[in-house]
Input
Amino acid sequence: MLTTFDRHILKRFVLSVTLLVAALIVFFIVLHYVEYVDDFMDRGARMRDVFLVYYPNYIPEIIKLTTPLAVFMSCVYLTGRLAQQLQLAALQTSGVSLQRLLLPYLSAAVVITGFMFWFNGYVVPGTNAVRLDFEERYMKDAPRQIDVNHIHRQERPGTVVTVSYFDRASDMGTTASLQRYDSAQRLTERIDAVRMQWIDSLRVWRFQSAVRRKFRTDGGETRTVMPVFDTTLTVFPLDFARSEKDVESMTIPVASEHIESLKRSGADNLGQARVQYYSKFSYPLASFILVLIGVPMSAVRRRGGQAIQIGIGLATAFIYLALIKFIEPFGYTETLSPIVASWLPHGIFLGVGLLVLLGTRK
Output
């Protein structure tokens, strides 16, 4: 049961988080625009599209990234203010423990964590799709395509699709080959084409200037020339032309299906996609963990005042976020398991939070 004091803390905490996130959004957009305005102008982006299409669709990503920091700094500021004004000392004298003081913060953190899981997994991907498409057209730092040349995909057991080059923008592969094998791994059919084009309206692949060869068991073959040949395959354009940030524009179910499809097709270098997928689950937990650290850390009255507490808080948040970025590349290269790389920083700081909570004077 929340008391009047709990509701007071909860109200101030939510207001502080909201204002901090709003301030960070403005700060981030200003810095980003200053850095990339030359790209926008050099590549012909209209300022109307930059501010009415690109940045509105970037705001959800900024909210995702900055919410843990806003939650943590709000904890540090509000709890530190109570400590400096001796209100915490008065509460402790009246029998209110630190764990009890955590209740309104943790209540808000649970709601924020649940909301951010839904927001990150189902809202942000849609806006990221628009944002990343804009970046591909107008920014020099656009997401890099992972697979470009000599791409091989297993369409299903016994069927392999190969293209020498796949263009992501036009959904077209050049020098394409479709090979089918029997259970003894003997080549039974091969289709070679100059081009292989995805026809989205029909959901088919169109092989152009194709030659089909069927191989008989006696060593002979039947050759058929086909100017145009349409077929359905279980691989799609995204399976051929992956970029570094594809998973960021997918909801959780779609991302899971995409990764499984890539595994079935024999694609390699899946570490980055898997880290991004698991991060959709792990990153929202950062807000909850930082509350566990922030409240006990700032509940102790310090000689240097609240400025020292805020400085320590910023340093702690920076170390946490830096550790996430430091460990993720080990998952990209699969030096660490992608699931371990996604969860390890949060596990470490969860342990730190529990130690700080247990070690703080009650």
Notes: The radius of gyration is 27 Å. The beta strands are 149-156, 159-167, 172-181, 187-199, 204-215, 221-231. The mean pLDDT is 85.
